[in-house]
Design brief:
- There is one protein chain.
- The chain contains 9 helices and 10 strands.
- The chain is α/β, with parallel strands linked by helices.
- It has one domain (about 5-305): TIM Barrel (Alpha-Beta Barrel), CATH 3.20.20.20.
- The strands form 2 sheets. Strands 8-7-6-5-4-3-10-9 form an 8-stranded parallel β-sheet.
- Helix 1 (about 40-55) crosses helix 2, helix 2 (about 95-115) packs parallel to helix 3 (about 125-135) and helix 3 (about 125-135) packs parallel to helix 4 (about 155-160).
């Protein structure tokens, strides 16, 4: 049994644990690995978000910068190393702050106009984008860097008093191929998530506002993702709700490989559903998915069996 939480989003809360919630993905980018360019136009992005809500999504996650493998999104100096001023170096992103704002803010505003009750998350590691998004109607900030790439993020989240997803990532996307293998990836993720959440709480982000994500595929090689799924319940000891995103990721393509060739992105749906079901049965509270309708059905069945 997974623990039950009330996720504090500021003006309201979401109950997590009684049933699995689904976060639908809207990439307002030209280069996402899964659907790059398909919803780059604002109107198409909003239309897609509305359809995801109709398909059963509980949350819509809107992102304006891809963190696909190889993407340059982080600073040349690792974020956890101190600069001469005593702070981590700021990100030097391929997508500028202004460009990201121009991508996501109109979509957030338009979606709120069409669906006032929609729960919107912004997928960003930039504090100013997070602030503008929440002021435009988003209630959750989903930060793949674990609040570490932008030194202002934790302070900003503490002031905004919104929901926040702290995700685990090893290194930067352009470094993933060369990362040293972890002896026990589950223990590593658990230890670092513990450290990062403690830092976040110490700097003013209230515990009931935080959800953690083990970051499947983010700095983990193909084989390391499987134990993270199989041992997901070990992260419950951190006492935060769990979000998991397996949707269309490369480790699924590798598991479904035929004749030495990984399954293409469009051929991973059934593998996604299997992995998402495993995640639910091992304690995930929220699934982040591109294929919302299928995920919602799988979650309802898994919840009935869990």
């Amino acid at each position: 049994m997974r623990p039950v939480y009330q996720w504090d989003l500021g003006s309201r809360s979401l109950e997590l644990g009684k049933r699995t919630l689904v976060m639908g993905v809207v990439n307002v980018t030209p280069d996402s690995f899964s659907d790059g360019g398909v919803y780059f136009d604002r109107d198409r992005a909003v239309e897609h978000a509305v359809q995801l809500l109709a398909d059963g999504a509980d949350i819509i996650d809107i992102g304006g910068e891809s963190t696909r493998p190889g993407a340059k999104v982080a600073p040349d100096t690792p974020s956890d190393k101190k600069s001469k001023a005593g702070n981590p170096s700021p990100p030097q992103a391929a997508v500028s702050e202004q460009e990201e704002l121009e991508r996501v803010i109109p979509v957030i505003k338009s979606l709120k106009q069409k669906k006032a009750d929609a729960v919107i998350s912004v997928d960003t590691y930039k504090a100013k984008v997070a602030k503008a998004a929440v002021e435009s109607g988003a209630e959750i900030v989903n930060d793949v860097s674990g609040f570490r790439w932008d030194v202002e993020m934790r302070k900003t989240l503490a002031e905004l008093k919104c929901g926040a997803v702290l995700m685990h990532m090893r290194g930067r996307p352009e470094e993933w191929r060369n990362l040293q293998a972890a002896t026990d990836i589950v223990l590593l993720v658990k230890r670092e998530l513990s450290e990062w959440t403690q830092d976040a709480v110490r700097l003013g982000i209230k515990r009931p506002r935080i959800v953690i994500d083990p970051g499947l595929g983010f700095g983990k090689n193909f084989e390391q993702n499987y134990p993270l799924l199989k041992r997901l319940e070990e992260l419950h000891s951190l006492k935060f709700p769990l979000m998991v995103g397996v949707s269309r990721k490369s480790f699924i393509g590798r598991a479904l490989a035929k004749s030495g060739k990984d399954a293409e992105v469009g051929e991973r749906l059934y593998g996604n559903i299997a992995a998402e079901t495993v995640a639910i049965l091992h304690g995930a509270h929220i699934l982040r998915s591109h294929d919302v309708k299928a995920t919602v059905d799988a979650a309802r069945m898994a919840d009935a069996l869990g």
